[in-house]
Design goal:
15 helices; globular; 17 strands
Length: 375
């Protein structure tokens, strides 16, 4: 069975106001001990089957210093790399991406960079707690291109505090002019325990209305598609052949290793989560040989649900013949009433054996996904 591998680096030089990922300030953290524990978990995964995609995320992987960063890449190369790897991605922040790290990534076979820009508006960058300015982001992308990285995704956000459609348009223009083959763009989600969530609770966070957010999303789709970036997943746009392979494995409900503190994985029909604390992760890897704190055997009905609400995030949708081959039931056997109702509402349609979102359904995706929950 083909699997991906996600490797989590939880360290950051600063914490953004919206971020709820498992992360800690870099200062005074046992980074070297963590990298050693990571190598143990990588080795454990490699004993089962080598992955076909590798994704190093965070946190901020490029917050590691050059020596630590090379140690990380060297361990990945030692334990997980193989000729069958189709995509090897590293997340990077503009302020911590430099020539030395780009040279290392080229040397160790990294094929794709995901650069966290969020917005090209300097006021908004300060407002959301980012450490870089818009010019830093442009320079980081151009430097990566100079080092031969042609598969770069620029990560953006919208519906930010005080963001207008005009400001969003300017950010989109600057991203498009960098000529990267992939752009990801997510709306701001307020998550508990974040600075923004606390501000919202106090009534001091002013966000665009739902109508303006929907208008922004429509603007994003029109502008990016006009410039040859195909809308292939709800939040992702690419030129042909540059769709994210690793993330597409999530949406196609494929299995993947989750490696590192707080990482989640899906392995041999079991979804699992690793302990989030860096120190507890290190201790668990040395004492127990693993760091899992929870495991859940995915039932058949859960796999059917996931096939639908993950697969429908992709514009290609879910193939009805594949569904029947996987589960021994037709999609209509399980979801006839739901599909009929969603079609009536104009949220899904069928084409050439695929069930997919309509243009209206793209804007109301969560309503569609909820309809496919069996329990």
């Amino acid at each position: 069975m083909q699997r991906g591998a996600y490797i989590h680096i939880p360290f950051c030089d600063h914490i953004c106001y919206y971020c709820d990922f498992n992360k800690v300030f870099m200062k005074n953290q046992p980074v070297d001990e963590y990298l050693e524990a990571l190598s143990k978990e990588m080795n454990h995964c490699a004993m089962d089957e080598l992955p076909i995609t590798i994704y190093i995320g965070g946190g901020t992987p490029t917050a590691l210093n050059e020596k630590q960063f090379e140690r990380l890449l060297s361990n990945v190369d030692r334990f997980l790399m193989n000729p069958a790897v189709k995509e090897y991605t590293v997340e990077a922040n503009p302020e911590s991406l430099n020539a030395a790290k780009l040279e290392m990534m080229k040397r160790y076979g990294v094929t794709r960079l995901s650069i966290g820009v969020q917005t090209f508006d300097d006021r908004l960058l300060r407002e959301i707690g980012r450490a870089h300015q818009s010019n830093d982001a442009e320079q980081a992308v151009r430097l990566a291109q100079e080092y031969g990285f042609d598969n770069i995704t620029v990560d953006l956000m919208f519906a930010l505090p005080g963001q207008t459609e005009h400001v969003l348009h300017q950010s989109l223009e600057r991203a498009i002019h960098l000529h990267t083959p992939h752009i990801s763009i997510y709306s701001l989600q307020l998550e508990p325990k974040t600075i923004f969530y606390n501000r919202m609770q106090k009534g001091s966070l002013k966000l665009p209305s739902e109508d303006i957010e929907a208008d922004m999303y429509g603007q994003i789709i029109l502008e990016l598609e006009k410039h040859g970036l195909h809308h292939y997943e709800i939040s992702n746009f690419s030129k042909p052949g540059y769709e994210g392979i690793h993330n597409s494995m999530y949406w196609r409900n494929k299995e993947y290793y989750g490696i590192g503190a707080g990482a989640h994985g899906y392995w041999s029909g079991v979804r699992y989560a690793n302990v989030g604390s860096v120190k507890k992760y290190i201790e668990s890897m040395y004492v127990d040989g693993h760091a899992r704190i929870s495991e859940h055997k995915v039932s058949r009905s859960e796999r059917i649900e996931e096939e639908m609400f993950l697969g429908l995030r992709l514009m290609e949708g879910v193939n009805k013949l594949d569904f029947k081959e996987k589960f021994g039931l037709s999609m209509d056997d399980v979801y006839r009433l739901q599909i009929r109702q969603l079609k009536k509402q104009g949220l899904v349609h069928e084409k050439d054996g695929w069930l997919k979102l309509t243009q209206k359904g793209i804007f109301l995706g969560n309503n569609v996904f909820e309809a496919f929950l069996i329990s």
